[in-house]
Amino acid sequence: MTPTARKARNAAYLARFSFGVGVVVSLTANVLASAKNPVAIGVALWVPIAFLLSVAMLEHIPVKGKAGILRKVAIGFIAAIAAWASYWHLVEVAQMGGADVITAHALPLTVDAMMALASTAMKTKVAAPARRAARKAPAARKATSPAKLKIA
Known about the structure:
mainly alpha, globular
């Protein structure tokens, strides 16, 4: 494995790990901020899951016509509500942990920013050097292929 390929593979692992840690932190904070009964915990768990699913839908649903735009706006609205609720749950947990007001309001942004960066890093595909070289030389492949016979 080349150093470039190894670096790309390690970056992909780090992105997945970072995203997973962000999900765990968000879910844990939402549960800690909830009342300690099964219904409240279920609702608290739903908030970050709804946000993640909304963001995933926004990234993958094509926009075609007015219906597509309306769909994107509706999903964005749901994502905004879930992000708002999750943000305040993280603020509450930070304050319970003894953080000052500024830190309590900045901490949720570190979780969300890390997950957003990890999400984009997970989507980035780095081609292996051998594949890159093969893509750049399609003419060389055609020149070495057997000639087609013409029947006259």
